[in-house]
Specification:
The chain is of the alpha/beta class. Helix content is 49%, strand content 10%. It has a seven-stranded mixed β-sheet. The protein starts with a helix and ends with a helix. It contains 15 helices and seven strands. It has two domains: 40-213, no CATH class; 268-363, no CATH class.
Length: 364
């Protein structure tokens, strides 16, 4: 019995040794790198690392995807980061920010594309602090710049200008690439982020936090995944069959379909007047007209390269068909002149003004 036991153990040892020898000769153990995609939270928020970093140091962070004067006036934070294209700029907002900075506020303003021709108010705000936009926006190469305000980042050069006024300061930036999660592993970007967001002493109150007005990255949803990985032909066939079944279900079996008489729409002027009454009740007639003027100026700048108030006004009047030198000859042209020059207009003039705006925008 014992002899058979030892023979079995010996055979098992020999077989195991042969297997190990064969394995070492013909197989190789090598590490395999498995890619783990970033979480949905990281894909939606490109600045997640910065937010967690600041929060970990006890600095509160609040993020909004858009902002306006009302939001700023209600904010408790004394430090605000604004992505210029996501802010509703008005003359009142510019004056408020200027006074807010002098009283101790800190503003980081990113002049992201294409803010310099869509809104003039950010440029006016920087002019109040003596900052020239031409020195910040990337109109030319700064690779060999020796300016101490040019801070090198991982993907190039981030231009910045800082001005202290009263108890606060304003910092103008050409872009926010340095603070993205994918770029914060670079030492120069870490130093810049520290200097801008965390170097000041933190008071023991809610004003120590940061309010970020910035965008989010759109993440592909269910339909996007289906179109990317699914069978597109099968999806089209299924949709076609569904449409046929639905139409077949609603087609009457016999007889004629009796249609109800359509109600005639209200005249265009009457609808404009109703819209004007609503806006007038909230004191927003001037705000509405300024939005139209900004849109016309933006389209003229993008499509025809026309910039400046008077030049844009002259082109808008040409499109409308009113003579520029005698705008009083046509009521719509006269109202366009008043709107572009920010002159007040009456409630009765509102429908004619909106009609003139729409005529110009239809051409553009």
């Amino acid at each position: 019995m014992k002899r058979n036991y030892f023979v079995g153990v010996a055979i098992a040892a020999v077989v195991s040794g042969l297997l190990v020898l064969i394995f070492n000769l013909f197989f190789e153990i090598s590490p395999v790198t498995k890619y783990s995609p970033p979480s949905r939270e990281a894909r939606v928020n490109e600045y997640l690392a910065l937010d967690r970093w600041l929060t970990g140091m006890g600095i509160p962070v609040r993020v909004e995807t858009s902002g306006d004067l009302y939001m700023l006036s209600q904010a408790k934070e004394k430090k605000v980061f604004i992505q210029a294209s996501l802010f509703d700029w008005t003359d009142e907002a510019v004056n408020y920010l200027a006074g807010w900075i002098e009283k101790g506020g800190t503003l980081l303003l990113v002049l992201d594309y294409p803010v310099w021709w869509r809104d003039e108010e950010p440029i006016v705000l920087l002019d109040k602090f003596g900052i020239r936009v031409e020195e910040i926006l990337p109109h030319r190469s700064y690779e060999n710049s020796k300016d101490e305000n040019a801070v090198e980042a991982r993907n190039g050069v981030t231009r910045s200008e800082q001005v202290k006024r009263g108890k606060g300061k304003i910092v103008a930036l050409a872009d926010s690439d340095f603070m993205r999660s994918s770029n914060l592993d670079d030492e120069s970007n870490i130093r810049l982020a520290w200097a801008l967001f965390a170097s000041d002493p933190k008071p023991d109150n809610a004003e120590s936090g940061w309010l970020f007005i910035r965008g989010k990255t759109r993440v592909r949803g269910l339909l996007g995944t289906i179109f990317q990985q699914g069978n597109f032909t099968v999806l089209l066939v299924a949709l076609l069959v569904l449409l046929i079944v639905c139409f077949w279900a609603v087609i009457p079996g016999f007889g004629l379909v009796k249609w109800d008489d359509e109600k005639s729409l209200r005249p265009l002027r009457e609808r404009f007047l109703a819209e004007g009454r609503f806006l007038k009740s909230y004191g927003a007639l001037d705000f509405y007209s300024r939005a139209y003027v900004r849109e016309i100026k933006r389209k003229l700048a993008m499509r025809e390269g026309i910039m400046g108030d008077e030049v844009s006004l002259k082109r808008a009047l040409e499109i409308y068909g009113a003579p520029y030198k005698k705008p009083e000859d046509e009521k719509g042209g006269f109202l366009l002149v008043k709107a572009f020059r920010k002159e007040p207009f009456t409630f009765k003039e509102f429908p004619e003004l909106i009609n003139a705006f729409k005529t110009v925008l239809e051409y553009l």
